Amino acid sequence: MTKANNIGWNFDNSYARLPSSFYSQLQLNRVHAPKLAILNEAVAKSLGLDYSALQQEDGIEVLAGNEIPKGALPLAQAYAGHQFGHFNMLGDGRALLLGEQITPLGERYDIGLKGSGRTPYSRGGDGRAALGPMLREYIISEAMFALGIPTSRSLAVVTTGETVLRETELPGAILTRVASSHLRVGTFQYAAQWGSDEELQKLADYAIQRHFPMIEQTQNRYLSLLQEVMKRQAALIAKWQLVGFIHGVMNTDNMTISGETIDYGPCAFMDRYNPATVFSSIDRQGRYAYGNQPPIGGWNITRFAETLLPLIHDDPEDAVALAQQVIEQYPQLYYTNWLAGMRAKLGLFNEEQQDATLVDELLTLMEKHEADYTNTFRSLTFQTCEGTALFDSKEFKKWYEQWQARRQRQELSKAQSQQLMRDTNPAVIPRNHRVEEALEAAVTRGDYRVMDKLLQALSQPYAHLAEQEAYATLPAPSNCPYQTFCGT
């Protein structure tokens, strides 16, 4: 046990009170020379941790997986998942759950280490992670948080002093991830496939108690669980679409019950608007392309519904009918969230029947003229619509007149409309070339100043500050399409 009780760790591990089939207890895989690469002061303080103490040796030893804080119980979670449509047994192959930090406000957050070494679920892998992908997750997850999108967050990244072998030797690192929980659709798939009905029920009751206590007394709490998870996923994916975020690997093991974005592997933000945009090197068929994310969300919810059928009703046919009534609501639920967000991006407070057509026409023009997604809405916000193929086109000018007429058909003022747009359309996103620039400096030169400046710019995406202007510029034209990699 670590001596560092002064750090503020206040651990419980309610997940470990589930049946032992849901996890494997772990021995620590120590690293010999850990060093702190980056520490998130805001996250540390929100967890009730002493930021200064975390930077000392005792703090770093915990973040490196070398020491166990009092009350922690390291374990690897078991889960399954549909990976690109194919069902597999999975589990934490390179991560461990230390436990759950209880904050001074009484909130409960999982504290997990990613890249912490082999587990019983490693499937031949080394269980380690390279520095670049861990810093990438830190950057993107913090950007998502600032954008107002539910997400896991990153407390720290430490380098291990060891190398990992991928295509080449790379510096090793461990990320400390903070999440409302790591319960996944795949966790329920695992229970349904390999557990008993009693174990499945215990998992469902645990999920309800942890995330949806308001449904415990409903007539059919497992049907209500399906409804609540579906609502959160529909809202989450709508938020992704509204900022041009592409998760890249929407396997069921990467979809949380809590409705948080998790597992930032080959994710990226779209520059030029195109629904077919794919960045992930492993998504060769475009299953998880930007435009496919909403229906894949529904597909994943259907897989979740299948796991709950024995709990929803004793009669299989009745169970299917009840679940079907719920999941049929998903497309409209998603669309309602998305269209409300699009109205806000266009400064519209009220609703009119033709709003969907107005939005669709703009997106069609953006795709035709290869317009940048984020900067188009930013230009609309500040009425700087000139100098691009889109803005100079006759079609856009006609659309612009229709939009202005639509804005006038609401009681609130034009200034209020613009403020709504300012609050909804970010000035900056983590542009792929900027992220790569930061990672290159940190990984190859040990220079974290580029990353620090990027994080600062991303921390207030709706502030529209002059110093953010440089981070809104597009990458130079390239014949090589940008690709992302899982980093596993």
From TrEMBL:
Enzyme nomenclature, EC number: 2.7.7.-, 2.7.7.108
Give GO terms: molecular function aspect only.
AMPylase activity; ATP binding; magnesium ion binding; manganese ion binding
Record key words, sorted: ATP-binding, Magnesium, Manganese, Metal-binding, Nucleotide-binding, Nucleotidyltransferase, Transferase
Pfam families to which the protein is assigned, alphabetical? SelO
Database matches in InterPro entries = SelO
Where ATP binds, per the record, is at 91, 93-94, 114, 126-127, 177, 184, 263
Annotated catalysed reactions: L-seryl-[protein] + ATP = 3-O-(5'-adenylyl)-L-seryl-[protein] + diphosphate; L-tyrosyl-[protein] + UTP = O-(5'-uridylyl)-L-tyrosyl-[protein] + diphosphate; L-histidyl-[protein] + UTP = N(tele)-(5'-uridylyl)-L-histidyl-[protein] + diphosphate; L-seryl-[protein] + UTP = O-(5'-uridylyl)-L-seryl-[protein] + diphosphate
Q: Give the positions the UniProt entry annotates as the active site.
A: 253
So what does this one do?
Answer: Nucleotidyltransferase involved in the post-translational modification of proteins. It can catalyze the addition of adenosine monophosphate (AMP) or uridine monophosphate (UMP) to a protein, resulting in modifications known as AMPylation and UMPylation.
Q: What is this protein's record name?
A: Protein nucleotidyltransferase YdiU
Q: Record the organism.
A: Lysinibacillus sphaericus (Bacillus sphaericus)
